[in-house]
Amino acid sequence: MYNFKNDYSEGAHPRILDKLIETNLVQQSGYGEDEYAQQAKAILKEKLNNPDAGIYFVSGGTQTNLLVISFLLRVHEAVISAKTGHIAANETGAIEATGHKVITTETADGKLRPEDIANVLEAYALAPHVVKPRIVYISNSTEIGTIYTRDELKALFQFCQSHHLLLYLDGARLGHALTAENSDLTLAAISEYTDVFYIGGTKNGALLGEAIIFNKPELAIDFEYAIKQKGAMLAKGRILSIQFLELFKDDLYFDLARQANALAMRIASAVREKGYTFLTESTTNQLFPILPKKIIERLSQHYQFYNWKNIDAEHTAIRLITSWATDEEKVEAFIRDLQEA
Length: 341
Description:
With 341 residues, the chain is an alpha/beta fold.
């Protein structure tokens, strides 16, 4: 059985393991005060074109969302998300557990647009009897593989600014979004057109770890207290910072994401050649082909993937995910099996 269920089945890129071993006995300060953290932050600030950005390394995506959103919201405020958004669909009510409502809205492609936010603001206008929307949560790439264009992100950010909302971008698969063949976004553009976002390492070569970026440093005042209080401040913070230093010093991060996307596109081409369609038009490492159930049954004998959504009595959309470490021979084998099914 070969696993196409996620992009974190493997451990870490060998260069990261080598760097962790190489620096293993070098004494460093704890709690994120190590020299590797300073080097990694300097590199990231340069790529962001934002020397004033506040950068914080934590261990996981759900932890990041919980930290940022609960920190930025006052007691009566809420966050807006697509119904498919990770904070709404996959985080065990983590945000609600802090006392904040997640307001969801239906979207066809997993992306939020200004008109979606406008509809929510209208529905929650009866102050003070309803929660007050304050944060707009988006993902790039989204949970269904789609990506934002520069114009889409800019328009959403400008709408948020004009309505006193904060725009927060979940970047669990940001590398895959930025290296997609039709992407026109950069890290610098994301830093310009969001208030806060994070760069996901866990799903792109790191053992674990995410880099939280506050583009406006005034929003991050006392954020270290929240990190510590929520149990997210590692004594051995070097474990996180060394990984981001290695991933970004020569753009390994983007090379790995580009490789994962390329493998996914090979599968996508084979699906189209067979005449099958997709639930969403993804150009990233997440694919949602709609296949006959009899073919899914055959493929599932040798490959693991998620049955994502029943389309009709005979067809189901599955989710396939490739990673930087996906075996190319297994990809070719899957394509052959698909063609012969």
